[in-house]
Amino acid sequence: MARTWQALLLLLAMLLALVALTNQAGKKTFISISEVSKAESHVKNTVQFMMDTFNQENEDPYNFRIIRILNIQKQVSDHMEYHINVEMRRTTCQKLQVNTNCGFQEGELYKQIKCYFSVFVIPWFEKFKVLKRNCTND
């Protein structure tokens, strides 16, 4: 009878250890966060993806373009995340136009916004995903 209880206790201990390990594996391991330059590798592709996604998803009939990058932070964990703050303005190019040399809107159509983006990046697989976007009128 004592051996049965010992076996049950051992089995219960193994089950608890397995649950604890599984729970720990689901947590993101935070490694570092640092301010980075817009010249750092992977930033250009990340910003391009971010802008393409913004212009596709935005309901405005005109494209926006960055006028100033305020700051960029890189967070490293089991993947990379870029946290990017920018100022953008509405351009004269409509969404269906491919031309990237568009001027900025003036007069009634003038619009400037500040945006924060959080972008998931696995650069070696060229995988990007905008996790968060928050824009406010300037």
TrEMBL record:
Any one GO MF annotation of this record: cysteine-type endopeptidase inhibitor activity
Domain of life of the native organism: Eukaryota
Keywords: Disulfide bond, Signal
GO BP field: defense response to Gram-negative bacterium
A single GO cellular-component term on record: nucleus
One protein family per Pfam: Cystatin
Domain Cystatin: from-to ranges: 29-136
Record flagged with keyword Disulfide bond: yes
Family: Belongs to the cystatin family.
This protein's name: Cystatin-11
Natural source organism: Chrysochloris asiatica (Cape golden mole)
